[in-house]
Specification:
This protein is mainly β. 11% of the residues lie in helices and 31% in strands. It has a three-stranded antiparallel beta sheet with strand order 2-1-4, with no helix packed on it.
Length: 107
């Protein structure tokens, strides 16, 4: 599959083929249909958020769940999902009713 890969800080992303492993226990494999690079990605590209490289950017995306890891219970293969970089507990009333931004304590 193709991905935008950051190899060096302050250098252009490289579109290249990457291979994937099966999802780990708390991971989800998504067949991405659209993805965007946002300001958070720019921070990685500029080195403001240090991260091991190479790295695939584009955490804001939409697609369909292909596989789930052994500990994943909140989505299943075939579910349509939207991803974003946010922290939420996933279990409180706010999270379970679609208002994760109001979760009292991220976990």
């Amino acid at each position: 599959m193709k991905a935008a890969v950051l190899h060096e800080v302050n250098k252009p992303l490289v579109i290249e083929d990457v291979s994937l492993q099966k999802p780990g226990p708390r991971e989800v494999l998504i067949r991405t249909t659209v993805a965007g690079l946002c300001h958070s990605d720019l921070h990685f590209m500029e080195g403001l958020y240090p991260h091991p490289l190479p790295a695939v950017l584009g955490h804001e995306s939409a697609g369909v769940v292909e596989q789930v890891g052994s500990d994943v219970t909140y989505v299943k293969p075939g579910d349509h999902v939207v991803t974003c970089l946010s922290v939420f507990c996933g279990t409180c009333d706010n999270c379970s009713t679609g208002r994760p931004v109001l979760a009292p304590t991220p976990r």
